[in-house]
Amino acid sequence: MHISNSTTADIAEIFRLYESATAFQKTRYTLHWPKFESSLVETEINENRQWKITIDGKTACVWATTFDDPQIWEEKNADPSVYIHRIATNPEFKGQNMVAQIVAWAKEYAKANGKTYVRLDTVGPNEGLINHYTKMGFEFLGLYDLKNTDELPAHYHGNPVSLFELLVK
């Protein structure tokens, strides 16, 4: 297993994994990811904020990070944090607990970058994800109605978000 930044050569695979994750979400939930703009992923790649886990030469999982997430975290954005977005696991690697690998990596990444928290969110009251993230060590902070979602992807508009944080020790 190897964690590294995604490159422009990974864009097609990233979107394939997003489409796979969205298809899965549609089978279980009323809220699901919209189609993301390629410019979003291209910017993350250019800023070294798009990541991947590779196993035996295959992309097992992708996600994005940022150190600034004011529209979702509002006043809590002032806390030094790493924010994780859009975790998408390759179906070939389901059940291999990629989130645990990401969490272990994110704790070290946060420490190396002088951050106090690892944070993530999910749209809506998704009990499965709430249970999964709390088992990974995150504290579930509750459901919040965001004040301004203008610059956020469509699935955030008019929907509450579940917020999670993990104190880096």
Summarize the structure.
The chain is α+β, with helices and mostly antiparallel strands.
Q: State the distance separating the first and last CA atoms.
A: 24 Å
Number of strands: 7
Instruction: Tell me about the largest β-sheet.
Output: 7 strands, mixed
| Major beta sheet, strand line-up | 1-2-3-4-5-7-6
Q: Please compute the radius of gyration using only Cα atoms.
A: 15 Å
CATH class: Alpha Beta
Q: Examine the coordinates and then state which fold CATH places here, giving the name of the CATH topology.
A: Aminopeptidase
Mean pLDDT rating: 93
CATH superfamily: Gcn5-related N-acetyltransferase (GNAT)
Helix content: 25-40%
Low-confidence stretches are none
Q: Please give the CATH architecture.
A: 3-Layer(aba) Sandwich
Relative strand content: 25-35%
User: Per the principal axes of the C-alpha atoms, what is the gross shape?
Assistant: globular
Number of domains: 1
Order of helix and strand elements from N to C terminus: EHHEEHEHEHEE
Structural class by helix and strand composition: alpha+beta
Keywords: Transferase
Protein name: GNAT family N-acetyltransferase
GO molecular function: acyltransferase activity, transferring groups other than amino-acyl groups
